[in-house]
Structures are given as C-alpha cells and as structure tokens.
Design goal:
This protein is α+β, with helices and mostly antiparallel strands. The chain contains 13 helices and 10 strands. It has helices at residues 11-27, 60-75, 118-135, 151-164, 166-169, 177-194, 238-248, 256-259, 263-266, 272-278, 282-294, 300-312, 314-327, and strands at residues 32-39, 42-47, 51-57, 84-85, 93-95, 98-104, 205-207, 216-218, 224-226, 233-235. Strands 1, 2, 3, 4, 5 and 6 form a 6-stranded antiparallel sheet that branches. It has a two-stranded antiparallel sheet with strand order 7-10. The longest helix is centred in the middle third of the chain and has 18 residues, at 118-135. The N and C termini lie far apart (66 Å).
C-alpha cells in the first residue's frame, strides 16, 4: 500500500508523503492501507480495521492543549466533537519537526452542513449556544492557557493590512467601492471603540473563533458536531455570534430581518456595539489580505469568489449597513 496525494502536487510533496506514510506505518499497531492529505498538516489515515484523522502541530504544547481541551469538553458534557486517541500508536508521533495528534474519524453525512439553508444556520447557532454553556463552566481553568479575545484589536490590524495593500488592490477594485468599504470600516471601529465595554462583558466562555461552515460536521446519523479548536480564546459569547453573523449574512441576502428571526442572535441585535461591529467588512478584508499574502489572485476560481464577495454583494451589503446606520442615529 502507498500514500495517496490526490492533488498531484510537486514531487517534493509526494516524497514527504511517502516518508510520512513509512513513519506512521512504524508507529501504528495496525497496518496502514491509506494516507490522504486533506489540507495542510491534516491527513485521512485508514488502517485495516479503523479510520483516523491525523493532524500536525508546530509545538507539543499546542497539541497537548488541544488534547486537554477536547477531553474537558467531553468530561463536562459536550460530546458533539471528536476526541484524541493514544491507543492506536506505540508512542507520541513526531516527524521532521512536527508533532502529530490522532483523532477519531467522524463519518460524515452524505449531505454536508451548509450556511445556504435556514435550518442548518439555526442548528449551527443552537450547537454554538450549547458549546458556550459548557465552556462557561470551566473557562477559568483555561485563562492562563488561552489568549483573551479582542475583536477591536484584531480588526484594526486587519484594516491596517488592507489599507497597506490598497495601492495594489486598486488594480482589481475601482472607486467608489474602495472608499465606501474604508468608510464602513472607520464608522464601525469608531462605534466599537465608543462601546468597548460590551466586548469585555462577563460571564466569559471559551470562544471557538473559527466558525466557518466546514467546522460544523454532520455525521452519518444526522448529529451535528463542532470541530477544529485551533483558534480558541477567552471572551464574551457575543464575539462568536458576531463572527457567525458575518459568515451567514452573505447567504441571507444581507437581511437584518432574517438575522433577527434567530433567538440566539436577537438579543445581540438590540445592542449598539454589536450593530456597529456588524458593519465591519471583516470577510472582505480577510480574503483580500490572504489573497495578496499568498499570491493567489492568479487563481481564477479564488479570484472570482473574492470579487463576488466584494463587488457582487456590494449593494445588498450597503443596504444592510444603511439600515444599521438608521438604527443607530
């Protein structure tokens, strides 16, 4: 059997995968029959008896933190996620400077979770609420281990990078689009600064911090799981709901009324700070900053996706922000 590289990348990638396959074969008790890269440092690993996900970390501390956190989640009653396993291996996995953790494989449903449907969006919020309620019971134990969530600082930095990239971005985005987005960001951050106490409001929970659709996984029995805790931090639950709103609004035609139908979201929509924060074009800045950093603007598919986010949705987003401004004046 051999490692499989479905992306057919450079020979160097294939050589690494073959070496990794040989190393894992020497460390797992069961014979490995398949090793497939899913994304950077994450692999699907199949043995003659079982299937696992193997994930790499730059430091052993990061791996141990993830192992401890997911174990605590389960111990405290949140079992809608994976657990790390040690029994399949002979010893701690360490290969060419990377520490690897072995996770149970959650067999996915044929129909993936999606922000396109109202039912899935709502189910995701219910699961997030359950996650927060459980982590509220033990967040004090992790305060010395995790950073504190600071959305104002994070978005100010993102805006600064975007502004630095503007001379290059002007080759892709015309006026008045750029000026309008910059004005949204300035207005949003000013309002957030004036209401900064809201973003430090207790009680605190452990925040997930990366609520993309692919971090919600529906298993073969229809049960929804929350996965990938690499960006966890300590803070007020509103920060996760703010990110979740930012993720789902493009699938709701930027409708404030549709957003308000969610019980979990409704209470935050009555707070000025949250409304100001909803106006910040965090997704646009994130994607352009990433595209320039990784030089992926030559990738036609990625480029079209970011242009749709920026220009294709511009006027529906503008209408949404105008509505926010009317509620705050």
């Amino acid at each position: 059997m051999k490692a499989i590289n479905p992306s057919k990348k450079q020979k160097g990638d294939d050589d690494y995968l073959d070496r990794l396959f040989s190393y894992f074969q020497s460390q797992f008790f069961e014979k490995i029959i398949q090793l497939v890269p899913i994304r950077k440092s994450v692999f699907f690993l199949k043995t003659v008896k079982n299937t696992y996900i193997v994930k790499g970390y730059q430091t052993n501390r990061r791996l141990k933190l993830q192992e401890a956190f997911t174990a605590t989640l389960r111990k405290e009653g949140f079992n809608k996620t994976y657990q790390y396993l040690t029994s399949p291996m002979r010893a701690q996995l360490f290969f060419e400077g990377t520490y690897f953790g072995c996770m149970e494989y959650i067999t996915p449903d044929k129909t993936a979770f999606s922000f396109h449907t109202q039912n899935d969006r709502q189910e995701g919020m219910v699961l997030l609420d359950q996650f927060h309620k459980v982590t509220a019971s033990f967040e004090t134990r992790y305060r010395t281990l995790l950073p504190k969530g600071n959305v104002i600082e994070k978005w100010t930095e993102r805006f600064t990078i975007f502004s630095t990239n503007l001379p290059f971005l002007k080759y892709f985005i015309n006026e008045p689009f750029i000026s309008e987005m910059v004005s949204w960001a300035n207005w949003s951050l000013d309002g957030m600064e004036k209401n900064s106490d809201f973003f430090q409001k207790k009680p605190f929970v452990i925040l997930h911090g990366d609520l993309a659709h692919h971090n919600f996984l529906r298993d073969e029995h229809g049960k929804l799981h929350l996965i990938d805790f690499d960006l966890i931090s300590i803070g007020t639950p509103a920060l996760d709901y703010l990110q979740y709103a930012n993720r789902i609004l493009p699938y709701m035609d930027w409708s404030f009324e549709k957003l308000k139908t969610s019980k979990q979201m409704r209470k935050y929509l009555e707070d000025e700070a949250f409304l100001y924060a909803l106006a910040f074009p965090a997704d646009i800045f994130r994607e352009w900053n990433r595209m320039i950093r990784e030089k992926t603007y030559t990738d036609d598919v990625k480029f079209r996706q970011v242009m749709d986010l920026t220009i294709g949705q511009f006027y529906t987003r503008k209408k949404f922000i105008n509505h926010l401004e009317s509620r705050l004046t």
